[in-house]
């Protein structure tokens, strides 16, 4: 068991001791356990909680009644009373029965990691879509656990783990909550329908879509702001932004693309949350290019990258064209950069606040999006096709050749096929007109 104390001089309403169980039979490194608990501290502070102390227990298997052992529960009770804490936050997900048993034994509010993350998302959600998704995730999580929230129901009214659905919704019966979930899913389906329409409209215009993904606090929003002058909230905290933001960005060639910032990932991201935010995260699945932003200064960089890879695989986006962006390179000593940042695949190392690095990134994005040079011949009177050539590709040169325009265009293979299909359709229509004229 290990214990870490924190400053207790604060008027913050929620005063908590954080608890973590480390299984001695699971293959989880000591460093990972410490990192997970440190991350829980950051999550709690992000939610506005005053962290008084952290406790950790090494145990072969979780206790079915309290998660931690009976002796550890008694020790936790003594520390809660001694420090005047009113909340216990657990790093693992708790069952309804465990919540009820811990409430009875400790007489404080019991919150687990999942509830804490859901609460932070509830604080951050600003758009109608985000608010619907958070409430849906919270209710989906709470529904099977209502029997475990005995005393917690009397403690509601703004505390952590309760924002979003709120007091009145949690006190209603399961049938009412199921009805609310059904309504939320219907509302979310409508939002998703509109999002799909916008996405299809963007595709038809031939505009490239690039998605920023990465672990929370890796610097995605900072990159979006710096690359597009977007008016987005940037702060050094977990989940500083939640709702997806799309802005146009100009490549060095002058071609415009759409850059979208997605919600940050985190280890043990609640499954209900992944399900609720699937429509948002699918921006990555629909993108022509994924920019995987990594906090290169983090000691747990490899683990964070693994988490992002797992979520992308779950979304079906693991095979997408990708460029790994090692951000915050300025925080790593020069002597350590080569050893620390070796990786497979395409990557670039940058400082988001360096104009030179941002220009290198723009060129790297352009190189990934735009393929080899191809030659197209377009009837000179087909202005709509000529316009599409300029929108989809990077026109290197053009010249008039009789009644046709000849273009040399840098374009990726997907858009090359799209242009080829359109030109073939025009040729077929032209030949049909000639045959009708001859007959």
UniProtKB/TrEMBL annotation:
PROSITE patterns: G_HFLX. HAMAP family: GTPase_HflX. The keyword Cytoplasm applies. SUPFAM superfamilies: P-loop containing nucleoside triphosphate hydrolases (SSF52540). The gene is hflX. Monomer. Associates with the 50S ribosomal subunit. Its main location: cytoplasm. Coiled coil: none annotated. Belongs to the TRAFAC class OBG-HflX-like GTPase superfamily. HflX GTPase family. Keywords: Cytoplasm, GTP-binding, Magnesium, Metal-binding, Nucleotide-binding. NCBIfam families: GTP_HflX (TIGR03156). It is found in: Cytoplasm. It comes from Paenibacillus chartarius. This is GTPase HflX. GTPase that associates with the 50S ribosomal subunit and may have a role during protein synthesis or ribosome biogenesis. Gene3D superfamilies: 6.10.250.2860, GTPase HflX, N-terminal domain, P-loop containing nucleotide triphosphate hydrolases.
